[in-house]
Amino acid sequence: MTTAQRRDKERERDAGTGTGRAPVAVPGQRATGCPFDPAPEIARAHREEPVTRATLWDGSACWLVTRHEDVRQVLGDPRFSADAHRPGFPFLTAGAREFATGNTSFIRQDDPEHARLRRMLTADFMVKKMEAMRPEVQRLTDELLDRMTEGRQTADLVAEFALPLPSLVICLLLGVPYDDHEFFQQRSSVLLGLRSTPAQVRAAQQELHDYLCRLADSKRRAPDDGIVSRLVARGALDDAEIAAMGRLLLVAGHETTANMTALSTLTLLRNPGQLARLRADPSLIKGAVEELLRYLTIVHNGLPRVADEDVVVGGRTIRAGEGVLCTLNTANRDEAVFPGSEALDVGRDARRHVAFGFGVHQCLGQPLARVELQTALETLLRRLPGLRLDAPFEDLPFRHDMGIYGVHALPVAW
User: Fold this and answer.
1) Sign of torsion, CA 42 188 229 234?
2) Domain residue ranges in the chain
3) Which of 65, 167, 250, 317 shows the greatest Cβ crowding within 10 Å of its Cβ?
4) At the top level of CATH, which class does the domain 3-413 belong to?
5) Is 119 exposed, middle or buried (0-12, 13-18, 19+ CB in 10 A)?
6) Helical pair 285-296 and 272-280, crossing angle rounded to 10 deg
7) Ranges 19-23, 82-86, 176-180, 389-393: which has the least confidence
8) How many angstroms separate the CA atoms of 81 and 192, rounded?
9) pTM
10) Residue 300's pLDDT band (boundaries 50, 70, 90)?
């Protein structure tokens, strides 16, 4: 056997071909199985072969990494790149490819450039600073609930509470007028939509870019205390770079927390025993938020990377130039780390979850997300003891069509 033939055999073995098992088809969207659980085909791969080959929407192949230990290895290893422009980088849809390659923010860059840009925002999201915002988050939470419940007994929790709260907070932090929230929420929906075409994504990107460039220019003339204004004042970035940072914070800063708030509320309503524990002992709220983050893991479709060199993960050799999807929701259901992981347990120590990712690209805004989620859920449960679902569970519009999972609407009564 020649060296070339031997190499081909090794690649065939490592790709899982010749084993009688077809590659896992990674869904760009799903609508089967329990809506709180990982997609059935991904869960099955996790049980049977936690590092396996997968087929994407366009027929291209990547590796699927599903186990907690292996996910942390890949996300913590600088030999795996987050740069979407590198050959072999995996994309879930054509629209997602347009979004990732047109997104010049630091989440799609590697060190040292990633670290240089991220450091410009680190101080804005430190735990101490986010904790200092808790009274303001509480005030906004109470005002939204006052408005939602005044003279009424029903509402859509997404539209009237879960979405406005993080939108108000991120606008406050960035110095973005909240009156423009419908504009950026609509564009965010396009950018995160799994059914969005490349042309639609490109247009939404450009509209947000132009909006944030105009905002940066306005802060140059009339500075304030917001993050955009401070980035302008530093003089280290041009308006396009500031717009890229602003777009990342604006989109991620409201979409993720909004969907976690609504989905967490729904999950507790569907688990009355756990809800009763939380009502009886509000001191559990911080741990309960970590458990909900673990249990729900709203990034359902995985974090993408591409190998810069050959790396062994979970006993399989991932070759240089091969893409990887790290499925956070299966990692957070790993029985080796979270025994009884299929059940929600608000008393569980879930701090090792990877819902915010892992490694140098771990979510910058997680201290803010925790403050918002803790405040929103504690206040909601305290102020609305009769809170209940106001529509059949089977009729709820889950966000199977979006890159950030949740529900499009959540009818509730109290």
Assistant:
1) positive
2) 3-413
3) 65
4) mainly alpha
5) exposed
6) 160
7) 19-23
8) 21
9) 0.92
10) confident
